[in-house]
């Protein structure tokens, strides 16, 4: 999904940004800054690392890490620290122990 232009109440002229990509979902659209970052990372990381995962939020990064850990180990559980905060998605709330209010009404 991409977003173009600027929303206003009255459309009298095309916006100055019309036709330019203002936002592209990182896992769907490969844009120039991301490709440049990948190329730079490849110069400093071991060659065995042949894939990258970019996310839009910390919670999404945590969810990706859970998936990777489960896939790599074949184990369903993860360990978290007491008092930790990982996010407000269902997956990250299950790991959050900093406040009971984050999980209230969602955990069983």
List the helices and strands and how they pair.
Elements: E1 2-3, E2 23-24, H1 32-44, H2 58-73, H3 90-93
Antiparallel strand pairs: 1-2
TL;DR?
This protein is mainly α.
Give an overview of the whole structure.
The protein is mostly helical. It is built from three helices and two strands; from the N terminus they run E-E-H-H-H. The protein has helices at 32-44, 58-73, 90-93, and strands spanning 2-3, 23-24. The protein has a two-stranded antiparallel ribbon.
Task: Name some characteristics of this structure.
single chain; 108 residues; mainly alpha; 2 strands; disordered N terminus
Overall number of strands? 2
- The sequence of SSEs as H and E is EEHHH
Number of helices: 3
Order of strands in the sheet with the most strands?
1-2
For the report, how would you describe the main beta sheet?
2 strands, antiparallel
Please mark out the parts with pLDDT under 50 across 5 or more consecutive residues, or reply none: 1-12
Radius of gyration: 20 Å
**Ends apart, CA distance between termini:** 35 Å
Beta-strand content bin = under 5%
Rounded average pLDDT:
77
Look at the helices and sheets and give the structural class.
Answer: mainly alpha
Q: Kindly state the percentage of residues in helix.
A: 25-40%
* Approximate shape: elongated
